[in-house]
Amino acid sequence: LAVLPEFHLADFHPSHDRSIRQRCANYDTHLSSYVALAKECAINIVPGSIAELRTDPVTGEEKFLNVAYFIDSTGEVRGRYEKRNLWIPEREFIDRGATDSGHVAFDTPLGKVGLLICWDLAFPEAFRELVMQGAKMVIVPAYWKLDDAGDVGKRRNPESERVFLDAAVVSRAFENTAAVVFCNVGGKKEEGYAGASQVAVPFVGCAGRVEGCDEGMSIVEVDMGVLDEAEGVYQVRQDLAREDWHYGYRR
């Protein structure tokens, strides 16, 4: 499985460059290229997220969507997810994905998988919906920077967003007895990049990461058997499946 970060094919803010709109309208070209690459290399790929400019065939209304895909090693698209929990500055130019169907887990050669994007990490409810459908792995491409803490947060702790990411990724793995694959954008620390790309599983915590915040790659081997071992101890999924489950998550 190869995972890339959010928005890796385009500038973060579509208003920065007029040609961005055309590139986003040609999103299917990018997707087709990754489908061909997955098939050629016989590898599963989550190509970060792709900014898609779509036009409603009925209303003619344009929508910018932030979309992640899971492509299997034969080139088949197994899953698609439109980002729903938008980071605050994103809301000016990205439309929220459809929310009528809930988060959806899907079958892959690696087992049941769910996709989330960046700020979704802050919402345990999103993970719960996927886990209740049997997801064993949740993949989260991201564009998350140290500057996202704002001036007030950075005054308290210049590294606060890295603390947030390290804590949240590992917590989501433990509390859901799931593997969490978090792939963040890389760059120079002085430009506000946070790094923290990592894979986390229960019991182990962080099983491997890209050190520092620069662009890089890490190959992480994970024994997925640890998930069943953790579930045997914590019985989180067993509780979630109870008929008298007392929290209002979707079933």
TrEMBL record:
Pfam families listed in its UniProt record: CN_hydrolase
UniProt cross-references to CDD domains, sorted A to Z: nitrilase (cd07197)
Residues of the CN hydrolase domain: 1-240
Keyword Hydrolase applies: yes
PROSITE patterns listed in its UniProt record: CN_HYDROLASE
Taxonomic superkingdom: Eukaryota
Record keyword Hydrolase present: yes
Keywords: Hydrolase
GO molecular function annotations of the record: hydrolase activity, acting on carbon-nitrogen (but not peptide) bonds, in linear amides
InterPro entries documented for this protein: Aliph_Amidase/BUP, C-N_Hydrolase, C-N_Hydrolase_sf
Name this polypeptide is given: Hydrolase, carbon-nitrogen family protein
Organism: Aspergillus nomiae NRRL (strain ATCC 15546 / NRRL 13137 / CBS 260.88 / M93)
